[in-house]
Design a protein that fits this description.
alpha/beta; seven-stranded antiparallel beta sheet; six-stranded parallel beta sheet; 11 helices; 21% strand; globular; binds flavin-adenine dinucleotide
């Protein structure tokens, strides 16, 4: 059973072999692997433990419950919304479940240019296979594709572009379409459903509502963590301390480096929190004569890879898939005020939405804000914003090719197109910072791995270069952007590198 910090009435001090910070993709997998090996594991999670019954399918209720900073986290300049999970299961509770392995080109690049050893495609293949088996990863059958994804498939076919179906980790899916605000049918084969129960079956303690505030270390060796229990209203109550010779950081590529900075981890080469990538994305809407009802059915079951080549220096760095928004999200995206906005909202059932996500080169940084919250500095480079503009044009082309009568680019000011030949008029500057609504859901790379301590925070084993016994097993590990959904890569690295932990 998951324990809650809300129930603690006095300061607590516990002992463990391993204490894990965070229970998302990385933390959930680490807890399961290490508990199975017989280690005494305590996993601490700052957010609550929610069950399928808590998922009301309402954006206004679920966003504050499931997301960091109640869904309002963004870059310091407010140009990009950075969306990440908070709660037992982390971002795997509300992600869309799509699954892709770390691409071989990316693993090769990490080995060649980032001194990452022991993570070749051949070494990881059996681990990918075992992760996919345990999380029931399979391709979404064509008959389960919803109308929004059929639009993308139609556009890809009409233009003769590259594209294909996607795999997901879901079982017993009812196609309700509310994946991003939590599954009321418990169909997600994720950290919360599969890995943490397995860890607890093997003796691990999972404690929600405890925010870790400091890693205990003497600059050379990890000793445990200190945190605070959080009440229902989020207020701090009592102190929680766990003494352990091994600490696993799995608080995400935002939470882990912020905690590292708060804990004054040694950082002789100023790498902690650097190298943030996050696949910033923009959405483009198309209006159709037929009803799309994009809120129904499985989201993101099809992709377009026409503009995605992962070789270094490539000028094709855009991944396109679908991104239907529920009513509040759509209302934010659709242009105008009063009557004009109402007219768009009335056409909501006839709208399809595509997203272009960037395989980004721009490097951001996570540090600690004065208010104690993570501060995210990230500004798109010129070439990255031009890439995203290409993505916007490609989405517009796909929508027209699929039969859209109008295409809407939610830029400042909004662009409405009525004919395919107008697509080229979308300016290269459309995706400049503050030029479009932008969101990022894949933070990566702020405590990256590699054997060279001048460039990487942790070794290729996941252990900190300076602090023995401190491991990182989450999205922070990636030395570069990966150009696709990261969860399978994170689950896999956490499983594979767990064998070094101890
Ligand atoms: C809306 C959305 C859709 C997505 N869709 C997909 C998808 O379809 N496919 C895919 O591959 N990826 C998807 N992702 C991304 C994917 O879910 C994440 O990349 C992945 O879960 C990250 O794993 P992680 O272990 O790094 O962190 P997370 O899973 O985010 O877990 C980190 C956990 O640590 C906790 N934590 C942080 N700091 C502390 C602290 N100090 N003390 C205690 N606890 C702490 C957090 O509360 C959180 O629960 C999506 C993400 C979002 C937001």
């Amino acid at each position: 059973m998951i324990e809650s910090g809300r129930r603690l009435t006095g300061a607590s001090r516990w002992q463990a072999d391993v204490v894990i910070v965070g229970t998302g993709a990385g933390g959930g997998m680490a807890a399961s692997e290490l508990a199975r090996r017989g280690a005494k594991v305590i996993a601490l999670e700052e957010g609550p433990a929610l069950s399928a019954r808590d998922m009301t399918q309402r954006e206004d209720e679920m966003m504050p419950l499931l997301y960091q900073e109640r869904g309002g986290r963004s870059t310091a300049d407010l140009a990009i919304r950075v969306i990440g999970g908070r709660g037992v299961g982390g971002s795997t509770v509300h992600n869309i479940n799509l699954c892709k392995r770390l691409p071989p080109e990316i693993l090769e690049l990490w080995g060649r240019e980032h001194a990452v050893s022991g993570l070749s495609e051949a070494e990881l293949r059996p681990v990918f296979e075992s992760v996919e088996r345990d999380l029931s990863v399979s391709e979404i059958e064509p008959e389960r594709r919803n109308n929004n994804n059929r639009v993308l498939e139609r556009g890809v076919a009409a233009l003769g572009w590259k594209g294909g179906p996607l795999k997901h980790n879901r079982q017993g899916c009812q196609g309700s379409g509310f994946c991003e605000i939590g599954c009321p049918y418990d169909a997600k084969q994720n950290a919360a459903k599969i890995l943490l129960p397995d860890a607890m079956d093997h003796g691990a303690r999972v404690v929600s509502d405890v925010r870790v505030t400091r890693i205990l270390h003497d600059g050379r060796r990890a000793r445990g963590v200190v945190g605070v229990a959080l009440g229902v209203d989020g207020r701090q109550s009592v102190e929680v301390r766990v003494d352990a010779n091994v600490v696993v950081l799995a608080g995400s590529a935002i939470g882990s480096p912020a905690l590292g900075v708060a804990s004054s981890l040694p950082d002789p080469h100023a790498r902690l929190g650097r190298g943030l990538r996050m696949h910033p994305g923009v959405a483009v809407a198309g209006l159709f004569d037929e009803r799309i009802e994009g809120w129904r059915g499985i989201p993101q079951s099809y992709e377009c890879t026409e503009l995605l080549e992962l070789s270094p220096g490539s000028d094709k760095r855009v991944w396109i898939t679908t991104a239907f928004a529920h009513p509040i999200g759509a209302a934010i995206m659709l242009p105008g005020f009063g009557e004009r906005h109402r007219a768009w909202m009335l056409r909501y059932p006839n709208i399809a939405v595509l997203t272009a996500m960037l395989h980004d080169d721009s490097e951001g940084r996570v540090s600690l804000g004065r208010d104690g919250r993570p501060r995210i500095d990230y500004v798109l480079s010129q070439s990255d914003s031009e890439q995203l503009a290409r993505g916007v044009r490609a989405c517009a082309r796909l929508l027209f090719a699929a039969g859209a009568t109008k295409v809407l680019v939610p830029s400042v000011p909004p662009i409405e197109l009525s004919r395919p030949d107008e697509v080229e008029s979308i300016p290269g500057s459309v995706a400049r910072p503050h030029g479009m609504l932008m969101a990022a859901v894949h933070p990566m790379g702020t405590m990256c791995l590699g054997d060279d301590p001048r460039r990487a925070v942790v070794k290729s084993t996941g252990e900190h270069h300076q602090v023995a016994g401190l491991f990182v097993l989450d999205g922070s590990l990636f030395p570069t952007s990966i150009g696709g959904p990261p969860q399978i890569g994170i689950y896999t690295l956490a499983r594979y590198l767990s064998r070094h932990v101890g």
